[in-house]
Fold this sequence. Notes:
Blueprint: E1 7-8, E2 20-21, H1 44-51, H2 59-70, E3 76-79, E4 89-93, E5 98-103, H3 105-108, H4 121-144, E6 148-153, H5 158-173
Amino acid sequence: MGGDGTAHELRPGRSATCRPLPLAPRSDLRWSVNQDQPSWASNEAVRASMKANRSRDTAPELALRRAVHALGMRYRVAARPLPTVRRTADLVFAKARVAVFLDGCFWHGCPEHHTVAVRNGQYWADKVARNKARDADTDQRLRDAGWEPIRIWEHEDVLLAAERVRSVVLSRKQPPSR
């Protein structure tokens, strides 16, 4: 909070040099959203809950990163393995060409834990089907480019998953035998 009673926030399209914004909401400072378009959410509570979902730095992802780091592995976070493909891996080991994806049970249709949505069931079923198709396409594109994708479910044991990542990365770092 600035000494003049303003909040210092970065607005969309602005540089890192922040200008103070008034604390009172003003319509000209909001993100540009078509207010006339109806929301996809079934109600405001669902909309608020869905907007709060994080795309990175989730608790399972942080736990996996800590476990992989504790094994001495170093990686890039939330990076594109293939710059020309708009897909982001949770962990990227560029030299070994390994991309790790930590998939949520609901969002990616876990065969053990996926639950069917009560409201807007068809929308969510279609959404999960699209996610699964995109995951398969991503894996194939990575393999075609010489990468090894690793898929980990959020419910998997973190230490076992970290060891699996380590094993794959180390096997791909081995120099070819003469």
